[in-house]
Amino acid sequence: MINTKPPVKNAERAVIELRANLEDEVVAVVDSPLSSWEKQKARRRDQFQRLAPWVVRLMMLFMLAVLIGEIWYLINIFQFGLVQTGLPVDLAIRQLGPDLLPTPIPPPLP
Question: Domain containing 16: what range?
């Protein structure tokens, strides 16, 4: 029978060469155009992850401003009784009369 087992030194050298070959292949794969696209994709994902909290904060601020505006609008509508008129506030108040208002309106200036 032929001894197929290499000596230990040859085995260690083969492992070292195999690792070197694998590292060369890994470097070749990393330098490929597909890899640069993946790097760009990862960079964009990182940029988005840094930007996302600020986008969410701005959206929440905008929604809060809209909510405050709607509440203010509804308070004014129900305070002056202008639900069905669709007129500008000043004109509608004068047409509805002072009995619907909590305080009387001064007469218009001449």
Answer: 9-100
pTM of the model: 0.36
Owner of token pair 């990862």: 42
| φ and ψ of 62, to 5 deg | -65, -45
pLDDT tens by residue, the chain, 110 residues:
566 655 556 667 777 777 777 666 655 555 556 667 777 888 888 887 888 888 889 999 999 999 999 988 888 777 665 555 555 666 656 666 656 555 556 677 77
Query: Can you say whether the dihedral through the CA atoms of 80, 86, 88, 90 is positive or negative?
Result: negative
Q: Does residue 109 sit within a domain?
A: no
Residue 107 lies in a domain: no
Residue whose pair of structure tokens reads 């619907």 in the numeric block = 100
